[in-house]
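In response to reviewer comment 3 from the previous cycle, which asked for concrete evidence that the modeling workflow produces usable outputs, we include below a single protein chain processed end to end. The sequence was submitted unchanged, and the resulting structure tokens are shown without manual editing.
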Amino acid sequence: MDPSITCRELIGFLADYLDGALPPAQRGEFDRHLAICPSCVNYLETYKATIRLGKSAFCEPGGAPPGDVPEELIAAILAARRKGGD
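The workflow returned the following structure tokens.
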């Protein structure tokens, strides 16, 4: 990876970053980028929230989603479930 990563590169490796799967040098580049890029910090927080909401959707079968979950996200999750045969 280039010494200074772009926003696009950060997004491309975000899952590995969150899983702790990046080598230390690459993780350092991510951390440096996040220190100067509020847009990527916001994207990261939104990404984490999406993962958290997705996991919580499977924790309580038949339970209602939290009130702040966008209807579009609920519809997408339900459509993916139907497609996957769940």
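The chain has five helices and no strands. We consider this sufficient to address the reviewer's concern, and the full set will be provided in the supplementary archive.
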